[in-house]
Amino acid sequence: MHKNWLLFKIYLIAGTFTFSGGLAMLPLIEREVVHKHHLMTKAELYEYSTLAQTLPGVIALTNAFLVGRKINGRVGMFAAGLGAILPAFILMSLATTAYQMIPQSGVTLSILSAVRAASAAFLFSAAYSLAKFNLTDWVTITVALVCFGLTAFSLVGAPTIIVGAGILGVALTAQKRRGKHA
């Protein structure tokens, strides 16, 4: 029961205090799950975070399901998942009601502008953490830069990029294995 409560609490806090979605939560989840409570390794967390980005759906919820299941099975998966979606559900319900009542000028616009800037900082922090962990050689750096360029300039959709990167990964791994056995 302790692990389930801990998973719920970690994702509840991450969902409440990090804006911008699942990737923005990553540094906080890493600090709690990996460094503070030692529930999984950094490599496992980043593997699940990367996988969560490639699957359809909400990244935060997918990440919570994967991490929760790894730590404490199906019950852990549901505890982490509930913790991940509850803040968004409550905050969005309150925000939609309040947004219609608050004048859309002055202080409100200033607050929203600052929150958007903070959200960008959370995303940069998550991107930096993922890059530091995953971009380990010239091949991974090149693949990441090409994928970024294709995405940033809307040249190819995300599913095509993911499938293409997966196929490239299989081909590169096969090539490495052939080189070792030769």
Keywords:
182 residues; mainly alpha; 7 helices
Short description:
The protein is mainly alpha-helical and 182 residues long. It has helices at 2-17, 22-36, 42-54, 59-101, 107-134, 138-152, 158-181.
Structure description:
The protein is an all-alpha fold and 182 residues long. The protein is built from 7 helices and no strands. The N and C termini lie far apart (52 Å). The relative contact order is 0.11.
> How many beta-strand runs?
0
Q: Ends: how far apart?
A: 52 Å
Secondary structure class reads: mainly alpha
Average pLDDT rating: 87
Number of H- or I-type helical stretches: 7
The share of residues in helices is over 70%
The helix/strand order is: HHHHHHH
Shape: globular
Major sheet description: none
Assess the beta-strand content as a share of residues: under 5%
Uncertain runs are: none
Whole-angstrom Rg: 19 Å
Layout of helices and strands:
Elements: H1 2-17, H2 22-36, H3 42-54, H4 59-101, H5 107-134, H6 138-152, H7 158-181
